[in-house]
């Protein structure tokens, strides 16, 4: 709606028109200019700003998962951050990436078809160098990947990107799987050249090496869940979870399936380092408790139960007698 003029402003405008200070054609030209808007048919805008923001939140969650995974695998801190999220033609994306790179093709039902997670070669070689015991250096120019390098990197990326569906858990239940790897983008025709895709550029830092990982999502791939990529849907889902009161149930179910280490402690003793060096087969060590005394059952580093040694079938076993009180722990 246009700005509402006061009576004094209307009178001044009519007076200017009558005196010829302002021409009516100028208003018509301004009105015509406002109706004209440039539109590039080669860069069709098919995603709203709200949907782009939702995709940004999803991939920020994905980057946190990648940071945890690669920091553990490479035994050094690896930083992943979302640099940009934009929509562009598929052909433009293909021509923007190196001619020799790691292109991982991902299937994620119920999403349609496949999408791409492309890892720049300098990042791939830095990861490979760390896996093989090196400091994690980059190579200035990558000519080609050897068969052994491809096998190692493929196995690494297959485990890393298997959790991509978890980043979408607030939108839909998605199971992702890496199905193929390509190194030359010119041989890869995923969709038509003019098809609109969303390009998520993720910055990666490994020590002094930096590069990018690009996630390319074609419009046809995420079309089944496009209606859910809105703030209105996110708010509805949050209210529904709060109303049901079951938001803790998935966490509880995952916790119940966790594996913990349980150790039965027969006893403890201490000896000098000199005695330790002279120990031989058949020597006996005296422990700090009798054979008939209850044993401590450890969960992690905590004494949780007391038990006694026995046999179950043909296996050694420990029977739980009672739980250790907090003050005894």
TrEMBL record:
Gene3D superfamilies: CheC-like, SpoA-like. It comes from the Bacteria. The keyword Cell membrane applies. Pfam families: FliM, FliMN_C. Its main location: other. Keywords: Bacterial flagellum, Cell membrane, Cell projection, Chemotaxis, Cilium, Flagellar rotation, Flagellum, Membrane. It is found in: Bacterial flagellum basal body; Cell membrane. InterPro entries: CheC-like_sf, Flag_FliM, FliN-like_C, SpoA-like_sf. It is a peripheral membrane protein. Signal peptide: none annotated. The keyword Disulfide bond does not apply. Residues 254-324 form the Flagellar motor switch protein FliN-like C-terminal domain. Belongs to the FliM family. This is Flagellar motor switch protein FliM. The lineage of its organism: Bacteria, Bacillati, Bacillota, Bacilli, Bacillales.
């Amino acid at each position: 709606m246009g700005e509402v003029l006061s009576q004094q402003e209307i009178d001044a405008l009519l007076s200017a028109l009558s005196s010829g200070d302002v021409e009516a054609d100028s208003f018509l030209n301004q009105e015509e200019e406002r109706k004209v808007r440039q539109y590039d048919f080669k860069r069709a805008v098919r995603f709203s700003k709200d949907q782009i923001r939702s995709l940004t939140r999803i991939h920020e969650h994905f980057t946190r998962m990648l940071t945890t995974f690669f920091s553990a695998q490479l035994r050094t801190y690896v930083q992943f951050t979302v640099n940009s999220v934009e929509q562009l033609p598929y052909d433009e994306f293909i021509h923007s990436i190196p001619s020799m790179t790691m292109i991982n093709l991902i299937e994620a039902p119920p999403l349609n078809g496949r999408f791409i997670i492309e890892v720049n070669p300098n990042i791939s070689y830095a990861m490979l160098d760390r896996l093989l015991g090196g400091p994690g250096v980059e190579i200035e120019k990558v000519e080609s990947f050897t068969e052994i390098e491809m096998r190692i990197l493929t196995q690494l990326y297959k485990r890393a990107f298997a959790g991509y569906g978890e980043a979408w858990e607030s939108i839909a239940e998605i199971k992702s799987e890496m199905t193929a790897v390509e190194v030359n983008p010119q041989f890869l025709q995923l969709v038509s050249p003019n098809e609109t895709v969303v390009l998520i550029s993720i910055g990666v830092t490994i020590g002094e090496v930096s590069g990018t990982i690009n996630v390319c999502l074609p419009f046809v791939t995420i079309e089944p869940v496009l209606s859910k990529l809105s703030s209105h849907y996110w708010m509805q889902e949050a209210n529904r979870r709060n109303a049901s009161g079951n938001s803790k149930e998935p966490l509880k179910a995952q916790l119940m399936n966790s594996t913990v280490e349980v150790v039965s402690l027969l006893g403890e003793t201490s000896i000098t380092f000199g005695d330790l060096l002279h120990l031989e087969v058949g020597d006996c060590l005296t422990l700090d408790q009798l054979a008939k005394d209850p044993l401590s059952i450890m969960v992690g580093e905590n004494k949780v139960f007391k038990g006694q040694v026995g046999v179950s079938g043909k296996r050694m076993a420990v029977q739980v007698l009672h739980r250790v009180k907090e003050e005894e722990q």
